[in-house]
Amino acid sequence: MADIGVDRVTKSFGSTQVLNGISLDIRDGEFVSLVGPSGCGKSTLLRIIAGLEPQTAGHVRIGGGLVDGMRPSRRNLAMVFQSYALYPHLTAYDNIAVPLRMRQLTAWQRLPLIRWLAPGTRATERAIREQVEQAADLLGMRDLLHRKPGQLSGGQRQRVAVGRAIVREPSAFLLDEPLSNLDAKLRVHMRTEIAQLHRALEATFIYVTHDQAEAMTMSDRIAVLMDGDLVQVGTPAEVYNDPQDIRVAEFIGSPKINVFPAEIRSDGGIDLLGQPTGLVAEADRGEARVGVRPEALRRTKSGDGALAGTVTHVENLGAELMVHFALEGAEAPAIMRLDQAAMNGLAIGDSISVDFPLAGARVFARCGARVAARPLSPERAPAKQVAHV
Ligand SMILES: Nc1ncnc2c1ncn2[C@@H]1O[C@H](COP(=O)(O)OP(=O)(O)OP(=O)(O)O)[C@@H](O)[C@H]1O
Ligand SMILES: [Mg+2]
After folding, report:
1. Is the Cα dihedral 93, 95, 100, 104 positive or negative?
2. Which residue, 30, 178, 266, 316, is most buried by CB atoms nearer than 10 A?
3. Whose CA is closest to atom 1 on ligand 1?
C-alpha cells in the first residue's frame, strides 16, 4: 500500500501543453477521483503516475520514493482501462492468472504440455489457483471463471479486469473510466461494487471519470481538472457546496447549478438581474455571476423582490420534479427542484415566482473565480434573509 505524490507535473505533446504544473498528494488508502471534461488531461496524468508516459517536468512519488524514470512494472501499480484489455481466447480464470503466471512461473513452466514435466509447476499452479479464487470470491464471480470474455456481460468483463489487477497485490489501483462502456443501470451497480472493493482492500485508488455522479458517490476526495489545471481538490461535499471556480460549480451537480448574470456595485452590493440581492461582495467590482443550486430555489409569492418566470418544462422523477422555467431578463433557462407537495398543480405555461436563501448563493467574478460574499449587516439586512430582486 502506498501514498502517491504528484509534484508540479507538466506535460507537453509537441508545442501543446496539456498539464500545467499539477501538484496533488494522495494518502495511503485514499479514494481520489480525477474528474473533468473530455480532453482536460485526466488520462495523461494517470498514465504519467503509472509510468506509461513520461512527464515533461515535475516529479512523481510512490510510497515516499521518487519514481521518475522508473519502468511501469517496477512501480507496482495496477491499471484498469476503459477497454478492459482482456485476452479473448482465455477464460476468465486464465485472464486473471496472467500476471501471476508471468511472475511466478519460468519460461519452461509456461510452455504448453511440456510445462507439466517441469519441476514445481503443479505446486505453483495450486498457489495461483488459490489467489485467483480468492479474488473471484471477493468479486462474487467464482462461477464465471470458466467462461471466455465473449460469454460475459460488460459488467462481468469489468470484474475480470479488476480481478486481474487485484491478484497482483499492487500498492495502488489506477482506474481510467472503467465503467464508461456499461449501460446506466449497471454503472450505478458497479460503482457500489468498486466502493465496497476499496473498503475491503484498503488500498489507494485513483479513479478517472468524467461522470461527476460517480466521483461524488465513491470518493474520499475529488480533484477537478480543467484545461490542464487542477482547479479544486476537496471532499465531495466541499466541491459541491463550496466551489472555488464557476467551472467547478457547473461541472459538479446534476442538474447543473443555475447561473444568473449579476453585477457587483461600487459599494460592494450585488445586483442580480438589475435588482439588489442583500449580498455584499468583499472585492471585485463589475460584472459577476451568481450560482444557485436547483434545490436552493424555492417558490414564493410574487412581488417583493421575487424572480419572475414562466414554466417551460417539467421532469417528473417520481419523488421529486425538475421544473424548468424561463426567467424574465435572463437568457439561460433556470431549473428548480421541487417535491410533489411544493408543485401544488404547477404546469407548463404557468407563471412562477421564486427566491433563494442568501446562504444558497455562490458569487463568481467575471474571470470565474469565487468571490467571498456575505449578507448585508443585520441592521441593513431585510427582515427575511432572502434575495430581493
Ligand atoms: N500522444 C498524444 N499526442 C498528442 N496529444 C495528445 C496525446 N495524448 C493526449 N493528447 C492530448 O492531450 C489532451 C489531454 O488528453 P487526455 O487523454 O489526457 O484527456 P482526458 O481528460 O483523459 O479526456 P477523456 O475524458 O476524453 O478521456 C487532449 O487534448 C489530447 O488530444
Ligand atoms: Mg481519458
Report:
1. positive
2. 178
3. 13
Give the pLDDT of residue 378.
58
* Number of Cβ atoms within 10 Å of the Cβ of 304: 13
Out of 2.40.50.140, 1.20.950.20, 3.30.70.1660, 3.30.565.10, select the CATH number for domain 255-375. 2.40.50.140
Ligand 1 atom with the shortest distance to the CA of 14? 4
**Which of 368, 245, 375, 362 lies closest to 293 in space, CA to CA?**
362
Where do the structural domains in the chain lie, given as residue ranges? Answer: 4-241, 255-375
Query: Considering only CA atoms, which of 1, 3, 2, 6 is closest in space to residue 230?
Result: 6
Contact (CB, 8 A) for 75 and 173: no
Cα of 350 to ligand 1 centre, how many Å?
A: 46
Q: Which residue, 280, 277, 261, 258, is CA-closest to 269?
A: 280
pLDDT per residue as tens digits for the range 316-333: 998 899 999 999 888 889
Q: Return the C-alpha torsion angle 217, 6, 178, 163, nearest 10.
A: -100
Ligand 1 pocket mutation, candidates 12, 19, 44, criterion most atoms within 8 A of CB: 44
**Model pLDDT for residues 321-375, shown as the tens digit of each residue:** 999 999 988 888 999 999 988 888 899 999 999 999 999 999 999 999 999 999 9
Q: What is the CATH number of domain 4-241?
A: 3.40.50.300
With a Cβ cut-off of 6 Å, ligand 1 is lined by 13, 18, 36, 38-44, 210
Distance CA 232, CA 215 (A): 14
Alpha helix (H) residue ranges in the chain: 42-50, 72-75, 92-104, 107-110, 121-138, 154-166, 184-201, 212-218, 236-241, 246-251, 340-343
C-alpha to C-alpha distance for 264 and 307, rounded to whole angstroms: 18
Contact by Cβ (8 Å): 302, 353: yes
Q: Which residues of the chain have pLDDT under 70?
A: 1, 304-305, 377-389
Side chain identity, residue 272:
L
Q: How many CB atoms lie within 10 A of CB 335?
A: 20
Distance, CA 131 to ligand 1 centroid (Å)? 36
CA dihedral 213, 218, 224, 230 (to 10 degrees): -170
- Which residues have a Cβ under 8 Å from the Cβ of 38 and sit 6 or more positions away? 210
The pTM score is 0.87
